[in-house]
């Protein structure tokens, strides 16, 4: 009964959410967002059935707190404290059971997809068709692996929501301060080192992006906030790898990465000895495996299909045009590219299990997709512009070349 009540309540909350989105972003399709919710709800059911018959972190997060007598504040020193901190009031004060918490955290994942949609749609107005007939944006928003790993109690749904809220808000931090603060909290409380990579990516985009959309005041605010965060959170970031007392960060990190990789390789029967791989092979493994030659489980078949899609999309930027594009790309593109590269680089040193890899990369792949999508949209707009220029003798530069962030249809 509680599950039904919660589901009805979430439907009402969604409708309020949709109305606010429609007012602020009239270019967004609320009908599409409703479809995303139902689709994500389906994966919440799929994951729940999966968790019943398989080991799942969701059980750990529920049982640990339900069997504990600690107070709310005492969740903060716990490992992965963000999950327990958010879970606590619903479990202890509102008496949520396991199924209700699964639904709630799945809803967090859905909110992440809404902000991902807003981030893409706000910056790219071009409609891109790939593989002959598929709308690229819709294809990206309905990727099964992304929905599966953000549909349960745990880090996946929370950090995905946090990352997408943050990246949506960071372009207009003064107008979207609440979303920026909430996104920062969710990311930092789950993976402080990921927050560090995102801050570095944002700063990189500000310094090296070609657009003038960000005002000087916004740039100063973001730079100051980013540097302040790094200063205040540095010890917490290092503590993730037990390096807060280290005198040799490079060697100590290498030792940590090797030990972590060895430990993860023994889990779930899908271990990889990535220590022997070259860096390009490590990155390829993180981005595109499992492929059909791996297939560690029945789930691996579906993941292989999705990874093949990733690979085909990546091939679209393997040309000289992309190199010229990325050199003069706007801040939001360079920011996304840097976050993706930094996070991928770090994770390749500690990931050696295909199951873990499938979960971890779901957090950052949308940054790569955004870069690819923006490039394809720019190329489409450029070709259309050149054709019109020849026909109508247009002298105005392409919108992108006027250093605007948005690719205009």
From TrEMBL:
The keyword Membrane applies. It comes from the Bacteria. Keywords: Membrane, Transmembrane, Transmembrane helix. The chain crosses the membrane at residues 6-23, 35-53, 100-120, 148-171, 177-208, 220-241, 295-315, 336-358, 364-381. This is Uncharacterized protein. It comes from Flavobacterium rivulicola. The lineage of its organism: Bacteria, Pseudomonadati, Bacteroidota, Flavobacteriia, Flavobacteriales.
